[in-house]
Amino acid sequence: MPLIVFARLALSLVSLAILGAAGYLLWSWHDGYWVWDAYGVGHQEHEPWRLWTALALLAWSMLGRLIVTPLLAKPDTDPTQPERGDHQMISSPTGSRLYVEMHGPADAPPVILTHGWGLDSTIWYYLRRRLSQQYRVIVWDLPGLGRSRAANGRAIDLSHFAQDLKAVLALTEGKPAVLVGHSIGGMTVQTLVRDHPQLLDGAVAGLVLVNTTYTNPLRTMVLSGAAQALRWPLLEPMFRLAIWLQPLAWLSAWQSYLSGSAHLANRIGFASQVTRSQLEHNTLLATRNPPAALARGNLAMFRWDADGALQAITVPTLILAGDSDLVTKCEASETLARATPGGRLEVISDANHMGFLERSQVYNDEIESFCQLNLVTRPGNRPREPMATET
């Protein structure tokens, strides 16, 4: 999302400046300076402080995250991790190849989870583990991210994502599913409703929109006026440069990750409950995804609007918002709830944009209760009893 992009860009420049300073100090130490003795013989002298300062700055540039992360986040009691499971690759009508995993009993009611931008399906670690005890949980990577492959640059936009989600929905084999979407995932769900409303007549049992918006996210983030003013002179050119200069952008992203600057930027998406593994997981995904794909997705969001999709929703809808969300402010979720017939808003306290990680127990309870209410009541669509108690 643009707010995090702002922070990552600024802190990445600081990180590169530190690395540049280390390089200059190493060069100046090696070059030294000349002094002449009483006999006119020159001696090259080296200033040790330049060497030691350069080595310290280099160490910070390569290992800073090991110090920064513990300072920014709490110790873990239940660490998340970007783990993968058994998967299949499916073809979408858009031409993209989609990475899909299925978890839980094969005959259980389906729940499809769509992640936010810059992430991949591993970010659903807690919710996937919880729901797969009773439901058939389907997670997938958006094209261009994770292990999914976009057909081309034009396939990275919301309308294409909606077609991709429709292809994933076909894997339920006619069983009504609950669709859960975080951030751009929620925008993708809304676009699916807008472009393919017939799916609400049986294929979709309910919607869960998590920390998302109904329009260009620049309009619903903190400091939205400044963000919109910077769109054309700064953001649009910056993203296009990232597409053209992807190798350099990727090197810069990894250097920022190693120094801990990226962790500091991504910390903006969390409130006070974030743990070290959650911050590391989020930052790692945002770093290893291709900068060109990330840029195209952000540009696509700038041009997106729900366009009446909300009024067309005829299935139960749960809208979850964080009261401290800076990326998509709580007011965006309130607007979603007002515009969605039968929509129910739940505001989670002390939760930012990544609230479903830092307050996972609360978010998981809400989503599981919604699935229980809207999937159990359907004939032939009952979930099994839980296989184990979540720790």
From TrEMBL:
GO molecular function: hydrolase activity
Keyword Transmembrane helix among UniProt keywords: yes
TM stretches of this protein: 9-29
Pfam family, one: Abhydrolase_1
Residue ranges of domain AB hydrolase-1 in the record: 109-359
Keywords assigned by UniProt, alphabetized: Hydrolase, Membrane, Transmembrane, Transmembrane helix
Keyword Lipoprotein: no
Protein name according to UniProt: Alpha/beta hydrolase
